[in-house]
Amino acid sequence: MKKNKDGSVKKILTFCRVGKSEYTSNSALKFYLKDQLTNKKGNQKDILTNLTLEEKIISACEISNEKTGENEFVWKADKDGRILIVYQTNEINAEGVLYNARSFEDAFFHINRKMFTGQGENDEKKAEKCAEKFQGLKKTELFFDDTQDSFDLAEKCVNKKPSLAMDILLNSESNGEQDFINWQVPQYIREGLEWLQKD
Fold first, then answer.
1. Helices 123-133 and 104-117: angle between axes, nearest 10 degrees
2. How crowded is residue 55: how many other Cβ atoms within 10 Å of its Cβ?
């Protein structure tokens, strides 16, 4: 067990599910949302999970550094700001499961697992069809294993991220009036796109 100079146990940050975390390793979130992370009570995960849309809209503000006397720019919440920071937050899937994803793939699999499991006649054929259609994936049989959740799938099954994104687009369906009807956009991406559309 490693210890700090003061004798306290040293915390070692490790990769884990968001629900089991206290901190973020995302340096962009820590940089752009530093004001919120510093001035709100709670651990980083709880603060980030509970920020409102307005608290994620930011602007650069010039302030005087008390130590150096020099002016510097910091990012602060500003409902009239021109930058919105979006990231994965809690989302409910079709099965009613509330979950906070860690990555795009994790979020996408959480709300769109049926896109990968819905082909073919039986489980063996479905897994084969999935492997054929989604060449950006590996170990596609895990999509048919109920003990594997979206976090597991994102960690174990993604072979090539760009290929998976193209596979999703190439396997999208249309009903003649609307495109992309067989999958949903993760909530955090939708939040950002809707905010951009307002302006």
1. 130
2. 18
**Same domain, yes or no: 108 and 142:** yes
41 is in which domain, residue-wise? 18-84
Domain co-membership, 80 together with 95: no
pLDDT tens digits for range 34-80: 999 999 999 999 999 999 999 999 999 998 888 888 998 899 999 99
Domain count of the fold of the chain: 2
Assign 76 to helix, strand or coil. Answer: strand
d(Cα 196, Cα 183) in Å, to the nearest integer?
21
Residues 38 and 99 in one domain: no
Q: What is the pLDDT of residues 121-130, one digit of tens each?
A: 566 788 888 9
Whole-angstrom CA distances from 54 to 40, 59, 60, 195 are 15, 12, 15, 10
